[in-house]
Amino acid sequence: MVQLQFLNYLLQTGDTSLLMVNSIDDSFFSDYNDEYNFIRNHMSQYGQVPDRLTFANQFGDFDWIEVNENPNYLIDELYRDRNKRTLAKVFNGVRDRINSGDVEGAMALFTSSSQDLVASTHIDSVDIIRDQTRYDAYLERTQDFNKFYVKTGFSELDELIGGWDRLEEYATIVARPGVGKSWVLLRCAMSAAEQGLRAGLYSGEMSETKVGYRFDTLAGHISNSGIIHGNSELMNSYKAFLDSMESRFTGTLKVITPKMIKHAATVTDLEAFIEKEKLDILFIDQHSLMEDQRRAKDPVTRAANISKDLKNLQVLKRIPIITVSQQNRNMVDDNSVIDVSHIAQADRIGQDSTVVVFLEQKNHVLTMHLAKSRDNGAGVKLKYAIDLDKGIFQFIPNEEDALNGSSCDELRNEFEPQYDGGAPF
């Protein structure tokens, strides 16, 4: 069918560059070889594609169809069609040689054919000196920045990295246990849902109910311990908050857990999750709670395999993937130089990631170390006074405030009307 589509498109548009630029020849037209050669010969002799009447006089039974498909799609499908036919021919030849006992001949045919297929693979390229379509992309960014980036939920981090890149982001949040990395990840997911995106979260440790409770705390500043312990004083305010959710969050946040899918998630499971829910962004909590499809026993190899597969998944699906990883046991303090070597189990995680953020917590002050960035900002620290029981993150702009904890008092005063005795600072 694609052969017929392409010939009709060529006759409709007269775009001869499609043949030249993409190295299209008669090998692509097994079902329409005569038709293609007529068009090509006409182009060589007269400098243009024949018009419909000229072509119809030569091929009266040609099936004319209207084609509105993207030409790049047609080119890609032509290559797939030809390679499929070529492979079938090669495999038949290899099989015949094997059946006749000519193993060496079979190997020689397979090797040479493989090389020929690789050499003829369709590869798109752009001359960046002469092509200026990127300027159009730039103009689009000036008009609708949110089309290209997702706000992280932390405006100060957004100022450094622009937000999560909607096409090319594979980011990692790193911390020791108990620091609050799951809270930070969930706040990022909440922000995506606020922006109207279809967000997905794999929770490798927490149940969907516990994730939901934490979401409610972050979104409504309702005591998390109060929800978990069934504090009846929260009943009315909690129900009122839940009733307001759909009006506030125009997007969705779909959650899956190992219990729901009957095992620790593989990258293939997450790919199916993306496809089923048509996700715009995926959050993973956490990297070490996934299963390596290659079944590597060595933890370093296992972590590297998962990271590689997640990176490939991001490239394939073209959506941001934000994951959480454990920090190794190397001591990190305010004077430490944070880099990707502090990620536990595998250097590969840091290498694959476009953005790496380390988290440290001391005296209810959370420090974000931007260890790796796409463009700039690496090495910058952001500090927040936090109350995780109330889901509150208050940016501390002054280093001295972070050291003496004065901003914690301001934080409590700001949220005092809602405060119901959650965890103290």
Q: Could you characterize the architecture of this molecule?
A:
With 425 residues, this protein is α/β, with parallel strands linked by helices. 48% of the residues lie in helices and 14% in strands. Strand 9 and strand 10 form a beta hairpin. Residues 401-407 and 415-425 have low confidence and may be disordered.
Shape: elongated
Proportion in helices: 40-55%
Tell me the name of the CATH homologous superfamily of the largest domain: P-loop containing nucleotide triphosphate hydrolases
Give the number of helices.
18
- Strand order in space, largest sheet: 5-4-6-7-3-8-9-10-11
H/E series: HHHHHHHEHEEHEHHHEHHEHEHEEEEHH
Largest sheet: 9 strands, mixed
